[in-house]
Amino acid sequence: MSNPSGAATQVPSPTRHRWALALIAAAQFMVIMDTSIIGVALPRMQSDLGFSQQSLSWVFNAYVIAFGGLLLLGGRLSDLLGARRVFTAGWAILAVASLVAGLAGQVWVELLGRAAQGVGAALIAPSALTLLMMLFGQSPRELTRALALYGAAAPAGGTAGVFLGGVITEYVSWPWVFYVNIPIALVALAVIPTLMPAAAPRRGSLDLAGALTVTSGLAATVYAIVRAPDVGWDPPRHCSSSPVAARCSRCS
Questions:
Q1: Is 180 exposed, middle or buried, given 0-12, 13-18 or 19+ CB atoms closer than 10 A?
Q2: Higher pLDDT, 4 or 28
């Protein structure tokens, strides 16, 4: 991810620098929190939506696969289109996806909402880091402090997600583990034009096929791991002809 510090068209004041850093840290906090906030809510979701025990894990997997698989694409889009545009798009997608996930009445809708949340997170995370470099890259001392706060936001988000997920599920209802993203996203969308520097679009190629291939490969790998406890790792169709057939419990 490049540091387009020279391309910024507005330079925030020191006070706006601090607010911009707070928003960037909040972005990192949110995308990590969304991986853990659903943990306590899963049994309620299983009961209300009719998830099987096996498919329930995909409420977590759908988000993580989309997030991890599309991070490189999000970073490239930040370079080409401008980090502020991609940052804004990521928050908008996260807000809509959270609404879909919270309102879901069927399994496939829930998984679609979670995957879309991951897409939004994959746009937010790399563009937030680019914006941080644009704002603080000119001063090594300020950059070090900004990176420290940015780095601390990730474990804080993971820890807070577990706690908040439990509190929300116990005292409100499980859809609110998704709805909690919406007001934060709306505030972010309202202040981004004021706080974040803009950069002109750049020319370059976009490897969309590569990003989709990486994401599909991650999905296939996770699916194999999830299915392994039920079907096993060795092929039962051919084990009857092998020397170990006598020791294979499934062929005896």
A1: buried
A2: 28
